[in-house]
Amino acid sequence: MVTKSLDVDNDVLLNSILKLGDNSKESYVIFDATNHHIIVECNEFFCNLTNASRSQILKTNYFAWLSDEKMTTIKMIKEKIHNGIMVQAKLHHKGINKPLFWAEIQALPFRNDTNITQYVLVLIKDVTYYHTEDFLMRLENDMYKAIERDSSFEQKMHIICHGLDEFFMPNTSSMVLIKTESNLLQAFTDNCRKKDVPRCCENNDFFTKVMQSETSIFIENLDEVYIPDEHKQFAASSHKPYGLFIPIRNQQRQVIGLFSIYYEQAHNDSSYFKSMFRKIGALVALAFTYARTQRKIWDLAYTDITTGLPNRHSFVNFLEKEVERGQNGYIKIVKPSEFHQVVELYGREFGDELLRQLAKRLEQDKPADREYIARFTSSSLILSTMTFDENLNNYEWRIKETIRQPFIIGGKQIYITLKTGIASFNDDIKINDAIRFADNALSFATDKPGTHTEIFTTEKNDVLVQRMTVLNHLSQAIKNKEITVHLQPKVDLRNGEIQSIEALARWISPKLGFVSPAIFIPVAESAGKVREIDVLVLETVLSWLAERQKLGKKLVKIAVNISPDHFYYTHFVQDTLKLVRQYGIDPSNIILEVTENIGLVDFQSAYKIIQELKSYGFKTSVDDFGTGFSSLSYLQQLPFTELKIDRSFINALEDPATLAIVRSIIQLALNLGMISVAEGIETEEQVEILRALGCTVGQGFFYFKPMAIEELDLILDQ
């Protein structure tokens, strides 16, 4: 009878986790932590991700789907989930008849009534593209830093080799061979392998063949090719029997050397390697050119290597200077619809040449207003026009004239259509935002047939007008202190006494009337004014506390919301401490509330800031917790005082899945030594459930609505 009851409880738990997995819209599996980590459920997304059927997945050990190259990581995951701790990790994931791919996994353990981890929900996301792009970006940044430090060419090549070996670890060993003026090849490896390979080797027939080829050459048996014995020993010593040899060309398509990549298993995604090493080869070429002439390298630092056009860095740098001069205008992102087909049919070089010729035609036919053209992505250009008024009809006519004649590339005639996304920039719209808006508009244009242009707008024009109106009045509202503070108590659920208070910004404009915080706070964030609002609210509550303290009245801890922009402000902690001391208030009376995903922006900085606040006596709180699953694994490492459960969960407590989540969050807060606060309580039933779950503090209309300071004074003084 007991066993049956446990089975029923486990079924309820499993169904709740299934709903949670389905609501995540992510690829997921659920495995039984008490039965050899056997997968008991998965969704179609996971089947597609791994190229496997449900029958091939179910009843398998989930950890068998992870590459065993990081056993310490897998061991760590197992230990944490069995201790009931959520964990996030990035590692190689397996599939069926497909290469290993980089996956970001989030493992969420769920315990049964006996407090044993029964099931684990694992959310899996294929991050191979982002991981690769992040690696290439880091490698590029490391290269530019090396250039700025004026590091030697040898040091730069060590950066390339070390980066490759670290990225593919433990699957590859990398070598870069660069032609010398004496027609030898200079060999570069990671510093730790430097002693294994002679500094130079002969430029023999095989290496010449590689450098004369247009594509890479794959070798299954290194004994069959004539390469130096030391290079074969280099591969054999790390158990890498396969070889991939890729020519390296400079911007003028002149061969400057080759990559010798040795790896342990044949990789069946050659396009992945070619694309990656084409970009890395461009970095090698950049360093090579810099070694010859320092002046040219600084030009190339702001140049797209493959087209010779200004790159994105150059574009942003140019536009920032124009904005500093008070210039306004428009940003256009232009993309040939057929770009990817051209690349697939004729190669990347054709795509680069297409963009080069398109930029030339646009340059020849540009308007009187100053225009700057650069390469934005691999398949698009970005233009800036300095004007207060963009005539769409003129632009569309210009584009049609630009593409009326075919592009001649490699002796072939290529006709194209163009998609354009347009957004404005000015004092109120930052450059990066304008670029993002133009990119969003481009995505809408891409869905339309033929040559098409879209100008960025919000889904409803009146919303955009409203935001702009709010923005126009916001500075004056802050200056005139139109933004006031309402207070909403947090109550001890055990006895109904006020435990602390939350300060909420309210704006009643003489011209606009009541403006919802849901409208003016995002506007303030985008305009860079939210820090002023945070400080205004903090000053108001400090003044109130100081007055009560002066009169010998009861003081209650008060929470103030801090925006991410303010939280990461360089002088945030010291400015806040100075303000609190100015009013003579003990920092222990102040709770600083931040959003759940604050640690995702810059986890290390967030940790230091929270620790520093804690050292001065401030309390910290996580607001709206539960709306951002990706940050759960960070929570255990950030020393918050309080955890506020988002009201959306409290409103749905009758749902078993939601109840399971709230129970887990309350237990998590308890395990981490935090106070759990339930937001949005409206009924007695919710109070009873939360008490039973162990939640100690609540906030909502059931107890108190937000009220003016004077109203709360009367309540506290009773």
From TrEMBL:
SMART domains in alphabetical order: EAL, GGDEF
Molecular function GO terms recorded: cyclic-guanylate-specific phosphodiesterase activity
Gene3D superfamilies from the UniProt entry: 3.30.70.270, EAL domain (3.20.20.450), PAS domain (3.30.450.20)
Domain EAL stretches: 467-718
Domain of life: Bacteria
CDD domains: EAL
A Pfam family: EAL
Domain GGDEF, chain residue ranges per copy: 327-459
NCBIfam families given in the database record: GGDEF (TIGR00254)
Name of the molecule in the record: Diguanylate cyclase/phosphodiesterase
